[in-house]
Amino acid sequence: QALEEAQKAIQQLFGKIKDIKDKAEKSEQMVKEITRDIKQLDHAKRHLTTSITTLNHLHMLAGGVDSLEAMTRRRQYGEVANLLQGVVNVLEHFNKYMGIPQIRQLSERVKAAQNELGQQILADFEEAFPSQGTKRPGGPSNVLRDACLVANVLDPRIKQEIIKKFIKQHLSEYLVLFQENQDVAWLDKIDRRYAWIKRQLVDYEEKFGRMFPQEWCMTERISVEFCHVTRTELTKIMRTRAKEIEVKLLLFAIQRTTNFEGLLAKRFSGCTLGDGTAKKTEVPPPSTNPFLEDESGTETDEIVIEKSDMDRPKKPKVPDNPFHGIVSKCFEPHLYVYIESQDKNLGELIDRFVADFKAQGPPKPNVDEGGAVLPSCADLFVYYKKCMVQCSQLSTGEPMIALTTIFQKYLREYAWKILSGNLPKTTSSSGGLTITSLLKEKEGSEVAKFTFEELCLICSILSTAEYCLATTQQLEEKLKEKVDTSLMERINLTGEMDTFSIVISNSIQLLVQDLDAACDPALTAMSKMQWQNVEHVGDQSPYVTSVILHIKQNVPIIRDNLASTRKYFTQFCIKFANSFIPKFINHLFKCKPISMVGAEQLLLDTHSLKMVLLDLPSIGSQVVRKAPASYTKIVVKGMTRAEMILKVVMAPHEPPVVFVDNYIKLLADCSTDTFQKILDMKGLKRSEQSSMLDLFRQRLPAPPSGAENPGSLSLSAPTPEQESSRIRKLEKLIKKRL
């Protein structure tokens, strides 16, 4: 029963929905009938409005065409200019009605009127400014001024034709006056060309300035066309008379031309150069190197290179001159004359530097300022900068690459002739500076040391080479800024920088060799002393005093003269330590046999030398500075090994096992050669040495898998804690002996 009631309710609901749907359809139909008439009225209104507007436009078009034709015949260009623009605008509304014959006919009449106007205006200009024959009228007419306004509305070709003919007629006198066969056409009178165009522009402004619309930029167009004509004419005459071009004449012409181009840039915007006639160079990124100065100040006489330059704010790049190269481009094929001249000048400059150095001698020591840099290097780079700025104003293409090659050539010549060529010659070696030559002994001969002046000269050359190295790097950066982007990769002064690095290295090696050789006689004397006969331990031995004396003589001079290049003084100290300490240890092995007291005396001497070497960077200086950690590490490691060798020698060799273990523990050296030398120093007999060597080989720690011959192995280095512990024990031992 409930189900039946539900079904009945559903049926009733369906019935109501159907009734609602039927009523909705009837309502929709009723609305359509009501709005049908409204839609028809809307369409009618829109069509009527369009028709009225179109008819009005048609009336305006027809009347305008008639008026246009009449005004054209009467040359009423002032009225035509405004009317023509309106007619053209109205005609655009009839583009979709061109299928209608009457509309098409009106369009053709407008085009015919435009063509007639164009031809008529060109004829008027031809009559007013004939290409040949009669003289130009005294001033422009109002008719031509209005004609220019009409030309703005006509086909752009009409405007271009008017401009072309007027400029051609305006420059016709120039082509006659400066013909190739005329005396004023040559480069030495190039000023007259630019003076002529300046007068013509003034004349144009007075007579024709108001005739042409301002947006035509006629003054700029005349100037640009003058530049193109001048470049063509100069190219022809220079090609014909190439042998007569001298560098002074060429630079004079280029300077006057670039000045004129700069004048154009101040006067005009360059808006007429959009056709690509002017070359726009890419703006290189701003640089902070010391070469970056105002290029207008080419007379700068100094290049200051300081670290503070790198911290200065970057200088904004000056906007490019849009007229740059518009005339001066014609000189680029002849810049080889300039490059050859600079090659000759730089060659003479280097020869003058060599002659001055021979005549005046080395620079006077200037310890207060940290050593004297040769003044010739600053002169060289000032000249380089002047050439670079001058050449970049002439061209940023291949001539800059050619100039860079010249720079490279004379940087190398300066390095070899002025710097390396004036380094003092050593008497100890004629085949170069080698470690072998430094280790050769000169028994029975007095070692010739460098004088104070020679040491100062070496330091001066080192400082100069460092200055040249830094400045060459900045020169390379500046050259890359000046040259075209496509040519940047071809500028590379790495080879020249390496050359100056070699000069620096050779200078440091000379200083090391001199001090090292001065210490050789003292070390030889140490190895010849009868150490087995020393009976008591006293003060430091005479050979130690001699070594310290040489160090105190040389090092303060070198330090004071290298005060401005501290890192190279540190290199000198490190190289000397790396050379002297192994040599000292080798001479130590030659001291044989040694008694217990002799070993104690040697230990005292070794400690004295160690203290002096640790203090070497600041020896003789009123200002005590902490030695660089890298240097201290080398001295401590090397001299500690010497002390450990002597400590092993002092240890009793009985029992042998204890002696061998003590040796391995203290020296951490598995080389049988070193152990053999220790036994020789102790003065053991060959039979004892043989058994001791066998025991040493047995007691060696087992080598790791894959290791080489055990005889060539070295134990791992002791830890810093172990080293410091040994050093403290050694110091206590020395104090006890003293």
Could you characterize the architecture of this molecule?
The protein has helices at 2-74, 77-91, 101-128, 142-153, 156-177, 190-208, 218-240, 247-267, 308-311, 336-360, 375-394, 398-419, 435-439, 452-482, 494-528, 542-561, 566-589, 596-614, 629-650, 656-667, 672-682, 686-699, 720-737. The chain is an all-alpha fold and 738 residues long. Among the domains are: 1-154, no CATH class; 160-274 and 320-326, no CATH class; 328-424 and 450-476, no CATH class. The longest helix has 73 residues, at 2-74.
What features would you highlight for this structure?
738 residues; mainly alpha; 67% helix; elongated
Biggest beta sheet summary: none
Q: Please state the structural category.
A: mainly alpha
Radius of gyration: 48 Å
Helix tally equals: 23
- Indicate the proportion of strand residues: under 5%
The helix-strand sequence is HHHHHHHHHHHHHHHHHHHHHHH
Approximate helicity band: 55-70%
**E-strand count:** 0
Oligomer: single chain
Low-confidence stretches: 133-139, 275-319, 428-446, 705-721
Q: What is the distance, rounded to the nearest whole angstrom, between the alpha carbons of the first and last residues?
A: 132 Å
Q: What's the average pLDDT?
A: 78
Question: What coarse outline follows from CA principal-axis ratios?
Answer: elongated
GO cellular component, one term: cytosol
Domain Vps53 N-terminal: 1-357
Domain Vps53 C-terminal: 600-684
Membrane topology: Peripheral membrane protein
